[in-house]
Amino acid sequence: MARSSRMENPPGRSLMKVLFDANVIIDIWGKTEDFAFSFEAMDVAIVREFELCITASMTPSIVYLLSARKLMSRKDAREAFGNLASLVEILDVGTSDCLRAQSEFEGDYEDDLIACSAKRNGVDVIVTRNKRDFVQSPVPALTPEEFVSAYKPADMEYGLVEF
Known about the structure:
It is built from 7 helices and 5 strands; from the N terminus they run βααβααβααββα. The protein has 163 residues and is α/β, with parallel strands linked by helices. It has one domain (17-151): 3-Layer(aba) Sandwich (Rossmann fold). The longest helix has 13 residues, at 35-47. The relative contact order is 0.20. Residues 17-132 form the PIN domain. Pfam families: PIN_3 (PF13470).
């Protein structure tokens, strides 16, 4: 989704609704090798006062993968999820989403389910490291780097401190 200029909030709405895919959340909370752009994408969304969200169907995967990949203990993963839940809206996944994902899409069912819930819940963009998983999505998908490039305020300076 290339644009020649910075993207703006949708007309008629003051806030943009941004869904962060589980892989981006895991990058941030697990401080993976893809941490920098994922963290910056969420930071930009917070600074821009966008509505941040995930789907309920992502929650078990996020908690499980943080501990299974040894990124943190099971207890810490549950605590991290509690912190995340205070930052984001958790969107429901309903019967209509399940049936639509099953009948109208041919990709990974989990990603199709996320896309259907995102569409029904008025999400404007999905931020994911795996755009190819959302090629059929009715909601546009951007990588964290693309999201930062499109939405980072011009006056926002950013740099991670090396430790």
